[in-house]
Amino acid sequence: MTRIGQIGHRLYTGEISYDFIGHRRRWYVLSGILIGISLLALLLRGLSWGIEFKGGADFKAPTKVTSTSVQRMRAAIEASGVPGMTEATVNTIGDNQIRIQTRTLDPAAEVPKVRAAIAKEVGINSDQVAYSLIGASWGGQITDRALIALGVFLALVGIVIWAYFRNPKMSAAALIALGHDLVLTVGIYALVGFTVTPATLIGVLTILGYSLYDTVVVFDKVRENVRDIKASTTRTYSEAANLAVNQVLVRSINTTVIGVLPVAALLFAGAVILGEGPLKDLALALFVGMISGAYSSIFIATPLLAQLKEREPDMRKLAARVANRRQREAQRDQPAAAPESPVPALIDGEPATSGAGVGSATARSAGPRSTPRPTADDSVRRPQPQRRPRSQRKR
Amino acid sequence: MASQSGHPGRTLIVLAVLIAGLATLMAVSKNWTPKLGLDLRGGTTITLTAKNTSGSGAVDPTSLDLAKRIIQSRVDSLGVGESEVTTAGDKQIVVSVPNVQQDELVRLVGQTAVLRFRAVYAAEQITAPTPEPTASASSAPTASASAQPTAGASQTAKAPSTTPSPSSQPSASRTGNNRPLPGLPTAPPQKPTPRPTVEGKGTPPDKAIDWQPSEVDQTDFANFTCADKEKFGDVSDQPLFACDDTKTVKYLLGPALIEGKQLSSAIAGVPQNDVRWVVNLEFNSDGATAFETATRAIAQRTDPQNRFAIVLDAVVISAPSVSAAIPGGRAEISGNFNQKSATQLANVLKYGALPLAFDVSEVANVSATLGGEQLRAGIIAGIIGLALVVGFCFVYYRGLGIVVVASLGIAAMITYACMVLLGGSVGFALNLAGIAGAIVAIGVTADSFVIYFERIRDEVREGRSLRTAIETGWRRARQTILIADTVSLLSALILFILAIGSVKGFAFTLGLTTMIDVLVVFTFTKPLMSLLARTKFYGGGHRLSGLDPAHLGVQWLPGARTRRTPAPATRTAGTGAAPIPGGTTPARGGEA
User: Fold this and answer.
1) Residue A344 within a domain
2) CB 3.0-4.6 Å disulfide test: which of A289, A380, B1, B349 passes with B266?
3) Which of A10, A137, A250 sits opposite B454 (nearest CB)?
4) What are phi and psi of B117, to 5 degrees?
5) In sequence order, what are the residues at sequence separation of 6 or more whose Cβ sits closer than 8 angstroms to the Cβ of residue B509?
6) Chain B within 8 Å of A206 (Cβ-Cβ)?
7) Are A361 and B106 within 8 A, CB to CB?
8) In this structure, are B468 and B330 located in the same domain?
9) Is residue A264 less than 8 Å (CB to CB) from chain B?
10) Which of A107, A258, A266 shows the shortest C-beta gap to B106?
11) Is residue A339 classed exposed, middle or buried when 0-12, 13-18 and 19+ CB atoms within 10 A define those classes?
């Protein structure tokens, strides 16, 4: 764990850093491919909607499942005298439950017959056959409501995020990442052929919250890092954003792990103990969506934000200034090239430290830089001053 | 809230008082367990969607409320306890009855009949599709108990009725909800004359008694078979072709004389000096007048026109004959009733007159065994989830794991208390989706701690002392936690407002736990951290506290009271240049 702590620390200071933003194309392409597959799956295979959306009846009865259970049950319901039973789906859940799904039935006239037939087949009282029945038009209403909820949610969240960051670009990047997660989750459903139930929809709407949550954590740090960026020439917006991603990486992983753990428990209980049902459906959607949400906030949302921001004239100027200064510095440093001055003169940035002298985190440049950096250990022993006088710090 | 740092103890006491208050409330109401939803304890939930009897359009809220009360009384008439009938949204009525799996309930509730009284113009025995029961064509239906048509082709077969039909006028009072299923084939052989489907163009009730069938009506009636009953809408000011509920007699009926809502009561009973069951009707004043006028006119006529039909949802449930005008708004339907059939007819008459028509949208019927299993699975999932999260926190945050456990424990206590109390006060019932919401919330709540702890690390890395880091880290973490929880709350709120059915339960618990999360983080976790920072174990960065230098990723703790490793100290001394780390003054100036 200590090791993770140290990795976290080095990520924080920029000592180790992955250039998420510089490599954005790679991740865009990856996401593009995934989204392409998802959309293709959606178009070609479509979603398999549960009876809750298209209407139908679903009966469940406890029984000792044998190899002939399905066949015998099929015969039993076909003999019930209710028409249309040949198209019913009969399957077993685990080894002690049988499920029969049919078209929607008349609750007063047909359900009792089918129920009685099932009960007789498995040898229980008719009242012990659990069932749910959904009218055809009702399913349409549920779908409509879900779509409305989705639309309202996206709109409101866009407003909230915009109000919070006071920045439409952050809002846009967050929403695009959200759309990304949505498409991926739906795509996985289409690809694997999981049944979509109302519980799935709850799950999807919840992951929207989660995905945003992850993005908010990252963007919060970005915002902090770029607060005074225009006044300095230490780093470009992209670099500041990249540092932010690196800094919150451990946190993002932790929050995702902690979020996923209970969901994994739900998935276990839903799939192993109950076999089928809302727990499994919900947990599955959450599971897929949360992982996708963590990924998208780091690999999609932030690079996207940086890209959008870099288009602003101010940020372009900043980038030019930074490049300019780096060039000058490179020229100046060239002759010196001394290992003694490993710390470039840029102790303006965020991770600047107060306790330089006591050997804690040393100030470091941000972003991908090739300048050799001292490790905490040898910087302590080094006799030369580790920071410049305050007068020289501000630029 | 940052000012709390000064009085962490005080905040904790306030929280303790709050929890004690919740516990007291539970004790006062003697209610220690949350109300469970029907999917967790077994029972039947029926969702009905109202539609206006006049066709489409908005549903009048008062009608919906009235219908709700009528359905409630129907359910109560079954004698099941704890039933609950609520309206949901602008056109749904949700009926939930625990521990009942009977088909009877669904039929009774789904019976969304429009009750009308009409004059009979013709009655005709029709060929039943099954071996003919002993029935006389002329007079009243005398279908016997065996007259259960097996209705081979008919999709609208009614439920198997075990009630023997009375052999005199009133036929069996039980009517299934005989509306045809959507999308199912019905075979209309001949096209009857189209008829108006909206009210307003026909005969008003006060003229209805003088109505005479036209030739078209006669022809159509001759062609009418019980199978195409639904071809003719039950429009109050139009004539109606209808069958009795065994489909053995078809009737040509005049426009409505009296509407169901003019009936004020129907009671089954045995009159004095008699042993036979009858149903006593009582009309309101309008109804009484109309009934008197109608019966006076009808009594003059000959059979079958001396009868009036009680039509429920276009099915003739009874067609008694009248021998004299009946004044006073009271009537008695006699026949070969037993107690059960008389009571049923009375109930149908009394509660049948719903102001709205309903579709049974959803029926969820969970057996007690399945419910128990779902509850068990939910609890197991909760325990596993909690254990995993706590385990992760201990492994990763070590001593701080105690803070996580304590905070989650407090959050769980408050959540539980809220669920119990809301169950008692507003009828909140915990369902499976709700349990799932609570489990997902474990993650949301623990996330807040992660954000805070990581912030503390960040602050320490930036050179702050632990105690300062706990305060400044909090100020930063606070807004992240708040915005994240706002988003979470927003999604819960939208789900709650827009969703229907069990989704609501999920949204509710998620929203509730999110708010509790904010409460706990602000009034428990943060003050606890402030207090712990004063202890040697945590504040000194003990190896197991989760706040030790190595764990935080720094060489040693700036500003720590106890320097555990001597090495940094000498180093500091060695450099000479190092100022004594000012634990309280962050060197990096500027904002917090």
Assistant:
1) no
2) B349
3) A250
4) -105, 130
5) B415, B419, B430, B434, B435, B437, B438, B441
6) yes
7) no
8) no
9) yes
10) A107
11) exposed
Do B76 and B26 share a domain, yes or no?
no
Domain assignment present for A330 = no
Q: Which chain A positions have a beta carbon within 8 Å of B37's beta carbon?
A: none
Whether residues B374 and B488 share a domain: the answer is yes
The H-or-E segment that residue A248 falls in is helix A237-268
**Which of A291, A314, A337 marks a domain boundary?**
A314
Q: Are residues B532 and B442 in the same domain?
A: yes
Chain B residues within an 8 Å CB radius of A2 = 550-551
Taking 50 as the threshold, does the pLDDT of residue B513 lie above it? Answer: yes
> What CATH number has the domain bearing residue A70?
3.30.460.30
Q: Do A22 and A77 fall within a single domain?
A: no
- Helix (H) / strand (E) element for A186: namely helix A168-192
Report the Cα–Cα distance between both ends of chain A, in Å, rounded: 39
CB B287 within 8 A of CB B205: no
Final residue belonging to a domain, choices A119, A134, A149? A134
Closest Cα in chain B to A250: B454
- Asked if B154 and B227 count as a contact pair (C-beta separation under 8 A), the reply is yes
Question: Quick check: A96 contacting B, CB < 8 Å?
Answer: no
Q: Tell me the C-alpha distance between B360 and B337, whole Å.
A: 30
Q: How many A-B residue pairs are in contact by the CB < 8 A criterion?
A: 341
Residues B122 and B205 occupy one common structural domain: yes
> Which residues of chain A lie closer than 8 angstroms to B110, CB-CB?
107-108
* Residue-level pLDDT at B583: 39
- What string of H, E and C letters represents the secondary structure of A196-221? ECHHHHHHHHHHHHHHHHHHHHHHHH
Test mutation, A2, A254, A381, A391, chain B, max B CBs within 10 A: A254
User: Do B338 and B32 contact (CB within 8 A), yes or no?
Assistant: no
Q: Which chain A residues have a beta carbon less than 8 Å from that of B500?
A: 141-142, 145
B248 vs B129: CA distance, rounded Å: 9
Backbone angles phi, psi at A375, to 5 degrees: -85, 165
List the 319-348 stretch of A: residues with Cβ below 8 A of B: none
pLDDT for res B520: 92
B367/A129 touch (CB, cutoff 8 Å), yes or no = yes
Enclosing domain of residue B482: 2-36+367-571
Structure token digits, residue B22: 């919740």
* pLDDT value of residue A358: 38
Q: Is B567 a domain residue?
A: yes
Number of domains chain B contains: 3
Q: For residues B304 and B244, what is the distance between their CA atoms, to the nearest angstrom?
A: 14
For residues A106 and B181, the answer to whether their CB atoms sit within 8 Å is yes
What's the one-letter identity of residue A373?
R
Q: Which of B165, B155, B62, B173 is nearest to B107 (CA)?
A: B173
Averaged pLDDT score across all residues of chain B: 72
**B564 alpha-carbon distance from chain centroid:** 61
- State the CATH number of the domain containing residue B104: 3.30.70.3220
**Cβ under 8 Å to B: A residues 132-171:** 132-138, 141-142, 145-146, 148-149, 152-153, 156-157, 160-161, 164
Tokens 């199978």 sit on residue: B227
Q: Which residues of B503-513 are buried (b: 16+ CB within 10 A; e: fewer)?
A: bbbbbbbbbbb
Question: Which run of H or E residues covers position A180?
Answer: helix A168-192
Q: Residues B109-114: what's their mean pLDDT?
A: 62
Greatest Cα-to-Cα distance within chain A, rounded to the nearest angstrom: 96
Question: What distance in Å separates the CA atoms of residue B239 and residue B367, rounded to the nearest whole number?
Answer: 45
**Counting every residue, how long is chain B?**
592
Q: B423-434: per-residue pLDDT in tens?
A: 877 778 888 888
Q: Which residue of B has its CA nearest to A146?
A: B499
ipTM score of complex: 0.71
Please tell me which residue of chain B has the smallest CA distance to A393. B588
Closest CB to A111: pick one of B103, B507, B554. B103
Per-residue pLDDT at B188: 44
